[in-house]
Amino acid sequence: MSIAIARANEIQYRVENGYGETEVLPGVYPLVRGFKCVLKAGHDVKPEVYADKTAIYCFTRGTGYITDGLKAYNIDELSFYIPDFSREFCIHAVSDMEIMKIVVDLLESDKAAYEDTHMVLPAFKRFSETEPYDQSCKGPN
């Protein structure tokens, strides 16, 4: 078993209209694609909407907000956003932002399970609003 590592200083972006993204660790897991993205202050991006995939956005640096036509979400700390499959949304950067985009292919079993039960989308949560999680195997550090 091997471990794949992507170093931040080795990631290169081609930035157009204030936005750039590059795939990191391509092919490491066939159903999951990860992208490191940058959005420059004062710019907007309307990411691709996926009807048959789950997308997760982790806002790791900078400030801004997301709008989806119904609601706005302020990004002022580490935050997470899972868009609705069919609703377009826009990300606006107030300061330079770094974003990790994770796109997951849904298996037929995932799609069937989704019909029975699923979280309400879109979903947005700041890190400070997340539930604490602990395990007995974790040490003091």
Task: Name a few traits of the molecule.
mainly beta; single chain; globular; 4-stranded antiparallel sheet; 1 helix; 6-stranded antiparallel sheet; 141 residues; 6% helix; Jelly Rolls
Specify the CATH homologous superfamily: Jelly Rolls
SSE series: EEEEEEEEEHE
Q: What's the domain count?
A: 1
CATH topology term: Jelly Rolls
Class derived from helix and strand content: mainly beta
Organism: Hungatella hathewayi DSM 13479
Protein name: AraC-type arabinose-binding/dimerisation domain-containing protein
Describe the structure.
This protein is mainly β and 141 residues long. The protein has one domain: Jelly Rolls. The protein has 1 helix and 10 strands, in the order E-E-E-E-E-E-E-E-E-H-E. Strands 1-2-9-4-7-10 form a 6-stranded antiparallel beta sheet, with no helix packed on it. The protein starts with 18 loop residues before the first strand and ends in a 15-residue tail after the last strand. The mean pLDDT is 90. This is AraC-type arabinose-binding/dimerisation domain-containing protein.
